[in-house]
Design brief:
Blueprint (H helix, E strand, L loop, with lengths): L10 H8 L1 H5 L5 H18 L5 E6 L7 H5 L11 E7 L3 H13 L4 E2 L9 E4 L15 E5 L9 H11 L5 E9 L8 H11 L20 H6 L5 E11 L1 H9 L2 H4 L3 H17 L4 E3 L4 E14 L2
Parallel strand pairs: 1-2, 1-5, 2-4, 3-4, 5-6
Antiparallel strand pairs: 6-9, 7-9, 8-9
Helix pairs in contact: 1-5, 7-11, 9-11
Length: about 300
């Protein structure tokens, strides 16, 4: 792995190649996608782009967000025509999972770069080493991943700026289990207390360390000071097994010993058995799982 990739993030290769990450992680809400597509249209206007756009996705994982760019839900505005998507992912297991997930949906995936004939290319790379030319991208998306640039913010900001066209957006988006409504879903906070104790100093979105970028000279030099921020709260349907898989797909849990993972699962199942849930279908064990999606849109100068 590159020195700019956190060693614990390497655990994603395991969950990526095994299919666990793909199975366990949720997609993103249409409301957030509408904001992103609006930003893409603004980028087209800013650069007077003729024809389709080029998009880079960093930390693309198994392509959960990528597939929304290919087959988006109904949104306003619609996504503009895309010429090429370059998905960049450092983990070989994740790239394997990316190709597998898209191939199952009959979506061709290339591995040769921007000049490859396939519309979607999956390539090795990092936040501070992006395999495309200067000012190539009409937009860059980082879904559920930018916090892993901790310790390398300056280089990441410079490299992202190199790739972005002037007036084009850097989109940062995260899904997070929502513990802000304990009166309806008291178990969410208790579960997070069970597994977050294993973070062991790894950079996590919830800690907000990544927000240090806004005070850096590289940010002030290369990006517009004002950025957009949106939050979407929603309720997903879940089962206890699904909740367990979601937790086991977290990098710092995947990296634990088998004994510790068994203990985490035991603690989670015991907590879920005791706690009150808001049911979708109690007979089938399906209940509501509250999620929040945070979206930041940052503009290249």
């Amino acid at each position: 792995m590159s020195s700019s990739v956190h060693p614990v993030a390497d655990a994603f290769s395991t969950s990526g190649s095994s299919g666990l990450y793909e199975k366990a992680r949720p997609s993103y809400p249409a409301e957030s996608l509408s904001k992103i597509f609006t930003a893409f249209h603004k980028s087209i206007e800013n650069n007077k782009t003729d024809g389709g756009i080029n998009v880079v996705e960093l930390g693309a994982g198994t392509g959960i967000f990528t597939r929304l760019l290919i087959s988006p839900p109904e949104t306003t505005p619609e996504i503009p025509q895309i010429n090429k998507i370059v998905a960049v992912e450092p983990g070989p297991g994740m790239r394997e999972g990316f190709i597998s997930a898209l191939t199952k949906k009959n979506i061709p995936v290339g591995t040769t770069g921007v000049k490859g004939e396939e519309k979607i290319q999956i390539l090795p790379g990092t936040f501070d080493s992006i395999p495309v030319e200067d000012a190539w991208a009409d937009g860059i998306v980082i879904a559920q991943a930018f916090h892993w640039s901790h310790g390398h913010y300056e280089n990441a900001l410079k490299e992202i700026a190199r790739v972005l066209k002037p007036g084009a957006p850097l989109v940062l988006i995260w899904n997070l289990e929502d513990r802000s409504i304990p009166e309806f879903h008291p178990w969410v906070a208790k579960l997070r207390d069970i597994y977050e104790q294993y973070e062991n100093g790894t950079p996590q979105y919830r800690l907000g360390w990544w927000k240090a970028i806004f005070d850096l000279p590289e940010y002030k030099e290369l990006y517009q000071e004002e950025y957009e921020k949106y939050k979407v709260q929603r309720l997903l349907s879940a089962t206890v097994d699904g909740v367990v898989q979601r937790i086991l797909s977290k990098s710092y849990i995947t990296a634990l010993s088998e004994e510790d993972k068994v203990q985490v699962e035991k603690n989670v199942r015991e907590a879920m058995e005791k706690e009150r849930k808001e049911w979708d279908d109690e007979g089938k064990g399906v209940f509501k799982y509250p999620y929040a999606t945070d979206l930041y849109i940052i503009w290249r100068k």
